[in-house]
TrEMBL record:
The keyword DNA-binding applies. This is ArsR/SmtB family transcription factor. Residues 6-84 form the HTH arsR-type domain. InterPro entries: ArsR-like_HTH (IPR011991), HTH_ArsR_DNA-bd_dom (IPR001845), WH-like_DNA-bd_sf (IPR036388), WH_DNA-bd_sf (IPR036390). It comes from the Bacteria.
Length: 295
């Protein structure tokens, strides 16, 4: 957090943000930056030094007309975790990141398909492709109506009781190509218990996802929303807002060797707008479907 504070102070400045924007196109020296920004050399040099101090840019000596200092951007992305892992509760937590292709059961109706990091898996709009051995390589899966179900190993130590279970996944609706206004009712089940339905507002495209491979056409689905489900003794919450009275006691976590999670778009849903589910190397978030169990 201390590092985050220092970096935030530095980038809370229009000139420095513009320097980073220019450097994203390629290396520049201070004279070039000064000219493009329309600022005095001395002002530009001060701002470059502040960016150097927090390691957001790097300066190298390169041969040219004599030796000159050239600045380059060090990072494409900044992530700040707004939590501390040094808590007593975190010592009693089980975390599993499930790849999206590791489902144990499924049903899919067109439009539907599986996509790896490099190509399509099977035949698009053919539900049989969901049973291909290569499905484990999937980084994006989608369907208009249907479900996928996952089973996590139940690692709750014998003699202990789960107090909270959390899931997070990146997902959105499924429209032809993409469509921002395309609602879809996505229902979630844990251990066969329906915990609630979330309505995705649309299918997001037109702007490449951070992790979406370059070969995937920009007018196709690019990224989703990262949603968080939490179930404890008080009920079920999505992104911190209670939306179901299902409690962790209703899930009977100690009765099975696994914990099941299912995403479904029902045929009779008010908004049967499909589902896109994103893996580690697709969309905006480098994760599969993460489960945290606190005990």
């Amino acid at each position: 957090m201390d590092e985050a504070v220092e970096i935030s102070k530095v980038i809370a400045n229009e000139h420095r943000m513009n320097i980073l924007k220019i450097l994203s196109t390629g290396p520049h020296n201070v004279n070039e930056l000064s000219e493009k920004l329309g600022l005095p050399f001395s002002t530009t040099a001060v701002n470059v030094k502040k960016l150097e101090d927090v390691n957001l840019i790097v300066t190298e000596l390169v041969p040219g007309r004599g030796t000159q200092k050239v600045n380059s951007k060090n990072y494409d992305r900044i992530i700040i975790d707004l939590f501390s892992s040094d808590t007593a509760q975190d010592k009693n937590v089980i975390t599993i990141d499930m790849p999206i292709g590791e489902y144990v059961d499924c049903q899919a109706e067109p439009s539907c398909g599986l996509v790896s990091e490099t190509d399509y898996i099977g035949i698009q709009d053919d539900p049989r492709s969901f049973y291909e051995p290569r499905r484990r390589e999937a980084q994006l899966l989608y369907f208009r109506v249907g479900y996928v179900e996952y089973r996590y190993p139940n690692r709750i130590p014998y003699g202990n009781t789960a107090t909270e279970i959390q899931f997070s996944a990146e997902l959105c609706s499924e429209a032809p190509y993409h469509k921002l206004d395309w609602p879809s009712d996505i229902t979630v089940y844990v251990n066969d218990k329906e915990i609630g339905t979330w309505t995705s507002p649309g299918d997001f495209g037109g702007e490449r996802g951070f992790n979406t491979p370059e070969w995937w056409q920009i007018y196709f689905t690019q990224y989703g929303l990262l949603k968080h489900w939490k179930i404890n003794a008080e009920g079920c919450f999505i992104d911190g807002v209670k939306f179901s009275d299902v409690t962790i006691g209703d899930l009977n976590l100690n009765e099975r060797p696994f914990i099941s999670l299912r995403f479904e778009v029902k045929k009779d849903a008010v908004n049967a707008g499909g589902l896109n589910l994103f893996g580690t190397n697709f969309g905006n978030y480098r994760q599969g479907i993460i489960m945290n169990v606190y005990y």
